Every structure is written in structure tokens, then in C-alpha cells.
Amino acid sequence: MSAQTSAVFSPPSPARSVGRVRRFSKVLQQNRMLLIGLAVLLVVVVSALVGPYFITYEPLRTAPEMKLLPPSLDHPMGTDNFGRDILVRVLYGIRLDLRIAFMVAFTALIVGTLVGTFSGYYRGIIDDVVMRITDVMMAFPSFVLAMAITAMLGNTIPNVVIAIAISYVPYFIRLTRGEVLSAREMGYAEAARCVGNPEWRIMYLHILPNCLTPALVQATLCLGWAILDASGLAFLGLGVRPPIPEGGVLVGEGAQFIISGEWWVSVFPGAVIVLIALGFNLIGDSLRDITAQEER
Amino acid sequence: MNTKTQDPVLSVDELVKVFREGALTLRAVNGISFDVYPGEATGLVGESGCGKTTAARSILRLIEPTSGHVYFVGTDLTQLSSREMRAQRRHLQMVFQDPDTTLNPRFTIRRTLSEPLQLHKLVGNGSLEERLLQTMSRVNLDPEFLGRYPHQLSEGQKQRVGVARAIITEPKFVALDEPTSSLDMSIRIHMIALLQRLQEELGMTYIFISHDLSSVRALCNRVMVMYLGTIIESGPTDDIFDRPLHQYTRALLSAIPIPDPQARRQRILLEGEPPSLFDVPKGCAFHERCPDAQPGCREVRPILRDVGAGHLVACDRV
Amino acid sequence: MAARDTLLRIEGLSVSFPSGDGRVTILDNVSFEVFGNEIVGLVGESGSGKTMTSLTVMGFLPPSGRIEGGEVWFGHDNLLSYTEEYMRRVRGRQIAMIFQSTRSALNPLMRVGDQVARVYRVQRGLGAREARAQAIQALTRVGIPDAEQRARAYPHQLSRGMCQRVLIAMMVACEPALLIADEPTTGLDVTIQAQIFDLIKNLQQAANASILLITHDLGVVAETCDRVVVMYAGQVMETATVESLFAKPIHPYTQRLLHSILRVDKTIEMPKVDAGLSEEVAYSVAGCRFAPRCPQVLPRCWEEHPPREQAGPDHWVTCHNYN
Which CATH number fits domain B10-241: 3.40.50.720, 3.30.390.50, 3.40.50.300, 3.40.50.2300? Predict the structure, then answer.
């Protein structure tokens, strides 16, 4: 019945770019979460990009005479143990965290979807092996896995990215494989073969584009998790080390001063981390809702 | 269309397709053989589970046959490597049944139609557009649709895109899998007329798989009837439809309602339902439901014999 | 014309649905009758509104649909004025409906025998054991062999044809005065289809009930129905006995329909290949909605609704050309 009514109620219409803009704003209207998430991120990103130009303090220059000053007009977030302005360090930290997050999400997405598509398409022994490997990887909490890999590889930023990305890859593999398992049965996959496509084209040009949506939503969520993971590792002394300004590093540096009353050294960086992760999570969650609705 | 002096375009020899699910064996296609000559349109008919769809896909090697040979213009398709088979596909195309799922929803019509030409390197950059426009006009589609996506088209339009995709490489042979079954009754005749005209224009040979016998009668000059994985009758269209010999064919034809209240029908109502493909009976596949069955039918599987003028039947009682 | 009792009379029914920025009138002034002890075929192509008509009669109109006007008389009552609670009493007992998707109409978790027995318990108030016995009888009546054993099967263990028979058995249990069957053989093989229609016809005669048979297949209409209603784009084009319609189709749409269907008993002449494949249905035309495609269209066809004229003892046409 619904197929019949949809044939009646949606007559063919040409796509218009005006329609797309209007649709996007309609989507924003109906999804408050998305709006808030985007707003939060916008604020964060803009201040991280633009902010340092307005501030004269340098993130790495120490000034022992200014140490541990509470928040004031000169130093909106106060200064730390070495007299460095915390706000400027936070802003540089945001830049680094965002870079790490995007590199992690991008890497995990690419590797995960490529492997997942291959595994789901060919099935058989290859699929079994891949599934067992992902099983093993997912048996570890992703943070613990990232910790182990970082410890093995050494404390550099690229290594942190690799470690966290590896801990996320199994999820992308599973997600994509699931979509591919049903997509490969679809008529257009068979039609693609009939027309003369080699297997790799059927997999990556025909099937994968139709299976990307859940992976993209997951990638958005991973942006938020990556920040939390990277900060967590840095706090523990793995990955990014002081004096490089990064969310977790800053929180770590300020941890010892909470008891003595200089709360601002940890709390501001921590709050910013939470804010960014929240922004990405809101976006990711609302994207998941939106795409689930559109499936119906 | 006297084609017997030429060699067949397609020659199928004892094609078998068996699916195994653990311990169970499903004999979807149980050894079929036939020839199709250039310019012919051969109908392959039967009800659900008869194996016609599986047979078509096995012939085109969209699924791998279990045994048997398929000779396409002399070449044995079953022996080819994947690359060689892909090259053959330029001339071995298929129009699929459900246009909703067989057009990639993320591709524009232009991309869907360009792909076969690009894969087989049939056009330089200049002539691609020309070829697309030519094909669109062949199937009576407005060139404006090239920039659209499948969900923006109606059923009939999508079906025509499917036809366009199949003919754009100007293949020698096209398999049509239920091309009219999802169309409204008043539109079917137009699709058949289109398919007929295309066949003449491009000199193609068709195999038409369908359970809609009225469409088959309109388009095909030969018909093969399948039941439970085997061909039980075949011959010229008028012969099969007006003078069916096999009991199943007769029951099948009598079951089709005729849009004429004056037509007096002697309806042959069959008992029960076809046996499962997991459990194909020994002997004649139809004997359990045949009104004319004899004890011998249970033992010996009848072979397809010519009873005159190219009319073949697989029945020992005829 | 002999007086017949009218079982169902639909008068001027109009239903609209939201579309884009406004509303589209999916059913436009639909009127026809179903008399006692007959099978009426409701014929049309996709988008003709035949399913929507039956859903409206049963009170199954989707929430976004709005009844713009008209009445549905069943006996002395207008069904459209009934509350949902009252309709529930009518459904099953007086009017029953079977749909296309057979398997999804049955509860996958209940054995089929129990489902049929449940109808007897709920609708006829029988006790458990009696209901079971009646259910097995009903299953036998609809041609299910080994009914006693098959009753213990679950729907997914039966073929589609068998499932449809089970649904018909449930109808038999209800003993409705009117049965609406919406394309009951979609997806079924032709030989099974013949069996099902044979069964439906026998049951109808035995029960003296009436059937409103919705179909797109004119062959089914010719062989199974007594009268036929032809719809296009939500409007009724022509109503007649089956003999009258096939012998002398009057409405241009009916004529075109009858001339363009493929036959299995003879070879048809092919039309010229034109844009005959374009099927945009015109819901926005104020008058007769076939105007855009009508070979005999007059200027007034676009503006005015044609009147319903009688063309024979039981033959009605809605067309400006007939006057």
C-alpha cells in the first residue's frame, strides 16, 4: 500500500539547489541538538583559529613572576605554574586536539570502510579471519588498547593518532560490513556485474557509496571520542607530553594545584575538552536520528 | 525469419545449477538444452520455482553454473576467465525485473548509462554525449532525465532506463527478466512494442523470461515452458499457445483469465502445489499432479522429443 | 430493472491527502453500488484510487487523509459517521477485507489453526473446543488438504497460496455480508490464482454474500465478476455489467484500456511506438481527469465534471461525449 501511495504522492521533480538550502535550514529547525552542537563547535573553532592573533602572550614563554595568578581581565583564565597564560595555551590546545581528532576519524574511516567492504563482499575465509581479528581488538576497551599501542610505539603525536585510530577501526569495519552484506544482494550490484564491472569497481564504486552513511555518522561521533581519548592519554603521560599545549596535558599540569586552591589551571582546560566533545556528540547523535528517519 | 541456415547465437547444453545448503540440495536447473538463432525472441516461461530466473542468470554467468556448457557465438562461456567473460558482456546484456533496486540510487541516469560504454571502451570523449542522446531517444525518454536520480523517475521511466542501459553497447543478445511484470496493464503493450522495435533496429536476439504469458505471446516467436528445473515443452509460439501438448502447459494456459466474458473456457484445475525443489521427484517432475499420469511416469524421466515442426515435448504419453 | 437490495452505496465520496504545499484530491466524487449476492470488480491502474476507496469504506483511512465529502451507505447507516468503536463492530462481522500481502496479514507467532479458531471465538462466541473444530472445517472448505495437520503449522511454513487460503478461511468464519478483496492473488502463480478465484466464487455463491473485488486484471474481471466499476485518477469513469462493458465500452478510457491489453489467446497488433508510455496522472484537472490523454477530449472536459448518464439497462458513463 505504501509503495502505491508513494507513487501517487511524490511525482518526479527536478532537484533544485534552492530546494537544498531550504531543506537544510528545515532540518536545522527540527533538530535542536544539531543546531546547538554546530553552534558550540563554531564558537570553539573560531576562537581557536582567530583568538591567538588577538592575544599577545605566547604559549611556551615562561614568566615565573606571573605564576599561578587567578582569572582576571589580563588573564581571563589565569596563569599556570610557569606563568604562562592559560587561555592562549587552551586555544592552541584546541587546535592540536582538533587536528588529532580529524586525523583519527579520517584514518579509522578510510581503513575501516575499505576493509569492511572487502570483508563483507567476499565473505568466506577472509571474512571469518577479519571478524575474529576485530573480535579480539574489540575485546579491549578502546582506551586501554590505545594506551598499550602508544606505550609500544612511543610518545609522539603521530603515534597517538595511529594508536587511537587503530582502536576505532574495528567498529568501522563491523559497521560497513553489515551494510555491505545487505547491499551486495541488491539488484544494482548484480546489474553492475552484468554490465561488465570488475569486482573491485562493484565493491568500491557501486556498493560502498551506498553504505557510507552509518560510517560517516560514526566518524562524527569518533571526533568527540578521539578528543577524550587523546586528552586522557596525555593526562596519563602518554602521547602528547608537556610543554606542548593540549587539553589533557593542561589538565595534568594543573592537577596538583587543585588541592592548594588554584583550581583554574585544570578546570578551564577540562571544561573546554568537555565542550568540544559535547559539540561533536550532539552533532553525531542528531545525524544518527536524521539518517534513521530518512531510511523510513 | 528463417534462421535455421545460420548458426545459433546461443547454444545451451545440459545446463545444471544446484544450490547446496548444508546437507540439503536444491536442484534449481536440472539439465536444460536449447538453441537460440539470430534475430529470434525466445520466451522462457513457467511459474515461481521453475528455475527460469536461475537459468537466465546461469547462462549469463551472473551465478556460476554447476555443470553444462553455454556457447555464445561459438565461444564456451563456462570456460572463460573472469576477464574474458567481462569482455563478452558487451554483447550479453540483461534487462532486470525490478527497476527500483537495479538502478544504483546514488548514480545519475547519465552515469548509469555511460558506465557500460566506458567499461568496454566504446566511445571517445566526444561521442559519449551523442551516444547517450541517441539511446535516450531510442527508448523514448526525454534527455532531460539524464541529470536526474532514479528516485525522481516513475516506474515506467525507470524500466526504460534499464532497457537503455542494456542496449547502449549494442549487444547481440539481451535477456529480459520480467520487464513488464511491474507495469500497469495498459502500459505493457507499449513496452512490448518498444522492445520489438529495438530488436529490429539493432538486430538483437532476445530471451524473454516471464510468467506473464500474454506479453510472451506478443513478443516471442518461440516459447519454452519450464517446470521444476526442466524444459517440458518448447516450440513456435502459436503452436504452444493454440495446441499445447504437455498437461502442465495446458493447465497453465487454461488458468490464465481471458478478458472476454464470452469466451467459454474448459479450465483445467490442477491439484495441490508443486513439490519442493529440494525434493524433485524421480521420473517425470509433473507426475504427481498430472491428470493423465500412468505408473510408468513415476519411474522414467521423459526426454524432450520433437513431435513435428519444431514442437518438442517431454512426455511419454504424447 | 428488477429491484435489488443495495448492500453498499458510495455517493460522492471525496478524499484528499497532503502533497507539497497543498492537498490533492485522491478520490473525486466517487459513486457506485454493490448489490446483494454479486461480485463487483473495481478496476483501475496504479493511482486510480481503488485501494483508497476500500480503505475509506473500512475506516482505515490514514491519519493524513481527509474526507472532503460524500457518504458510504451500508444498510441504513453512513459508515463515515461511525466512531472507531462502532466500526470495529462492523468490521469482520458485516464487512471483511483481505489484502495483498498474505503472509504479513497473519500472525507469525501463532499457528494458523489457532488464528482461525480465534475468529470463531471472538466473532461467534464459540468455546475453545468448538472453535477448533469449526476452524478445521473451515480450512478444509477452503481446500487445504490434511487440514487437521496443517492447522498446526506456522505461517512461514506454508506457501503463499496456502496462506491466502487461511485468510479466506478466516473470512468464512466471519460470514460477512460484504467481502472486500484487494488484489488477493498478487504474487501468486497463475495456476494457484485460478484455484483461489474458483474458491472465492464458490464461497460467495454458497453464502449469498457480495464481494467487492479490487483488481487491475481485466481477465479476472471478465471471468469472475458480475458487474464492474472502472476508475481512473480517483474518478469513476464507467459502471456496467461485465457483458455490457466488454461488448460495448463507451468511455474513451475504457475503450483504450480494452484495446491495449495483451491477450494470451490471440496475437495483438502492436501500436506505433509513441510517448504512450508517459503515465503522469493529472490530479489537478478540475473536470474529467482523463482529459490530458483522451482522444475525444472537448474543451469543457477540462473545466466541468461530466454528468453520470445512463447508457443501458445497467450501464452508466461519466463522460461529456455521451449525452
Answer: 3.40.50.300
